[in-house]
Amino acid sequence: MPQLNISAALSLQPQDNIIATNELEKWHLDGLFNRTIDAVRIKGYFCKQVSADISDKIRRSKFFGSYANAPKIGRIGQAFFECQNDEQSLNRYREFSKVWIKEMRKEVSPFLSPIDRFRLELSDLWPSHCNLAEIEGHKLFAGLVREFKEGSYAEPHNDVFSWDLMNEMKTNISNQLAANVYLETSEQGGELR
What we know:
The chain contains 6 helices and 7 strands, in the order H-E-H-E-H-E-E-H-H-E-E-E-H. With 193 residues, it is of the alpha+beta class. The protein has 2 domains: 1-43, no CATH class; 47-184, no CATH class. The strands form 3 sheets. The protein has a 3-stranded antiparallel sheet, with no helix packed on it. It has a two-stranded parallel sheet with strand order 1-2. The chain starts with 5 loop residues before the first helix and ends in a 29-residue tail after the last helix.
């Protein structure tokens, strides 16, 4: 694949620095980390049939449930944010982080889970690879699955891991990317801001 001149490529993009592409490239990561790119959009990251198959497998998982305070939002996994100032939630998160990742792999087999595919592609592109973050020797969970049913929503927010750390926690994180992989979308709603 030919190398692209980043300034030439950026000049072809909309002014809000959202890159539309068919595949992730290293210059996208450079731009995200140096904040010259706000987002990278890869339309059709999974083909429609694979997306539908993965979605069906996820919904049938014994780990698929909903939030206690938001029953219209289905999920597998837990965001680290949910552990803030709650030792019981933090212990549950530590106990299940690797379980959720392993079970997600089993559930969507023979396909790669969306987060596994994304992590592999990041690791191939980034010189020092892409690893699961750790806090005090515990690997963190990646790959939170959410299904927003009609009438549900999430407030606009930023996923900034360092904001969620508690009590001088020690971590190996040098930088962070957030990614959303949409397996299914509705005709309306679901916009990102």
